[in-house]
Design a protein that fits this description.
Layout lengths: L1 H25 L5 H12 L2 H18 L9 H28 L6 H27 L12 H9 L1
Helix pairs in contact: 1-2, 1-5, 3-4, 3-5, 4-5
Length: about 160
């Protein structure tokens, strides 16, 4: 639970700073390359929003909730390929890396963590993003860490 809260706070902080400073950054005299790197660091969090949208759209498509006329079947199949490549492509690359590094036996752990911790983490990151973009307050948590208990013992 602490991992999810930490990721949510980080996303909230990055997107709050992005929302607060985007106009000033764009119209400042900062070199374009610096502006671009600042923007990319912030916009990277929006990838999780895109992944969640694709994940939900894929689930709806697989569940049969979307009903389309027959003439759209080819288009829908092409869209399905795009959904799969965008959402499962990084997993396939990670599996390939495991094979190339002769750690193929770790594939099950990769898949298990992706479809458990990964999905939950994306959910919490998106909570932080939307709270920041909608200017909603963030509830802050004290995380239990071994460093915290060491600090408490010294005081």
């Amino acid at each position: 639970k602490d991992l999810y809260r930490q990721q949510m706070r980080w996303a909230y902080g990055v997107m709050s700073a992005f929302r607060k400073h985007i106009a000033g950054t764009i119209f400042s005299k900062i070199p374009f390359t610096r502006k671009l790197s600042l923007g990319m660091a912030s916009i990277g969090y929006l990838l999780t929003v895109i992944l969640e949208i694709l994940f939900i759209a894929g689930l709806l498509k697989l569940s049969g909730i979307f009903i389309f006329p027959a003439q759209h079947i080819l288009v829908l199949n092409l869209q399905a390929v795009v959904y799969v490549m965008l959402t499962i492509g990084p997993i396939l690359v990670a599996i390939l890396v495991l094979f190339l590094t002769q750690k193929a036996d770790q594939t099950y752990r990769l898949l298990l963590s992706t479809f458990s911790y990964g999905i939950l983490t994306i959910y919490y990151v998106n909570l932080g993003i939307f709270k920041a973009l909608l200017n909603k307050p963030m509830q802050w948590y004290f995380l239990t860490k071994s460093g915290n208990s060491m600090f408490e013992k010294k005081n």
